[in-house]
């Protein structure tokens, strides 16, 4: 049987890169989804981009480094409803991890040009994963 780690154990992560765009403050703004941002990977991770152009969309996991504290219950920005933090996209989260699906526009060396990234300039990027439509949008009525 697997042991569950104690809650006090830390997890160490190192950013693979950083975001560059015109958004300097964490303010809710729908227009961010139509803007272009750059994800600048650290040079040592450039080889990890090999064949990333095979995908139109990517998941970007990032760290809300400017968000301080969190509330378990709050009002969601997008519909005004009261919900728990795990039923929202709030940047004020216990672990401050953000996730967004972006459109990949082009790759130049260690720089990804993407559209739809809802993170601010300087945000640390933790990971990048391909969005695979066939995997993500399986027919729920299909038998396993």
Automatic annotation (TrEMBL):
UniProt cross-references to InterPro entries, sorted A to Z: TrmO-like_N, UPF0066_cons_site, YaeB-like, YaeB-like_sf, YaeB_N_sf
Coiled-coil boundaries: none
Keyword S-adenosyl-L-methionine: yes
Native species: Methanosarcina barkeri MS
Statement: the UniProt record of this protein carries the keyword Nucleus: no
Boundaries of every TsaA-like domain copy: 13-140
NCBIfam families: tRNA_TsaA
Keywords attached to this entry: S-adenosyl-L-methionine
Family note: Belongs to the tRNA methyltransferase O family.
Protein name, UniProt field: TsaA-like domain-containing protein
Signal peptide bounds: none
